[in-house]
Amino acid sequence: MIVRKFTPLLIVALALGACSEAASETEMQAENAAMADRVREANEAGLPLREVVPEAITYPDIESHDLLGRACSYAPGTSMGVRVIAREVDAYMKIDGEMVRFAADPGSRELPANSRTLYNSRQYALRLAIDEKIPGDETEDTMYGGTMWLYDQLDRVVYTGSGTVSCGG
Description:
Blueprint: H1 2-19, H2 25-45, H3 59-64, E1 71-76, E2 84-86, E3 90-95, E4 98-104, E5 118-120, E6 125-133, E7 142-151, E8 157-168
Signal peptide: 1-24
Protein name: Lipoprotein
Keywords: Signal
C-alpha cells in the first residue's frame, strides 16, 4: 500500500529532475554569443535606403513660405526648376509634395547671399557647394555651378544633383 502512495510522487520527482538539468557554462556562453551576433546584425542592417527625388519649388510655394529675398537657388542639370532655396538661417526643399524646412548650421562655411554649406531638418541633412562663377553672366543675380547632397538619418546620400546656382536677392 505504501508503494502505491509513493509511486505518483516518484514519477513527478523524476520528471522534474529531468527538466531541471541546467545547461552547461559553455552552452550558455555559446547561446549568448549567438544572440549577441543576431542583435548586432539587426542593428547594423539599418533602414532600407529610400532614394529621394526633390520636386521643383513653384512660385505658390515661394509665396506661401515667404521665400522672396536674398538667397541662393539650386537647379539640377540644365533644368530651370529650383530644387533648393538656401538662405541665411534656413533652406527649403520640396519632398513628396511637402515643403521641408532645414535650419542652417551656423558653424558651417558661408556661401554667397549669406547662405551656408550645411542645413539640417528632422529627417535629413542638406549639404551645398558652389563652384566657380559662370563666365559671361550679365544678370542681376550671380550665377555659379553648384552641387547639392541630401542625406538621410543614417548619413547616407539619398539624392545628389549638380547644376546652376543663382544667388542674389
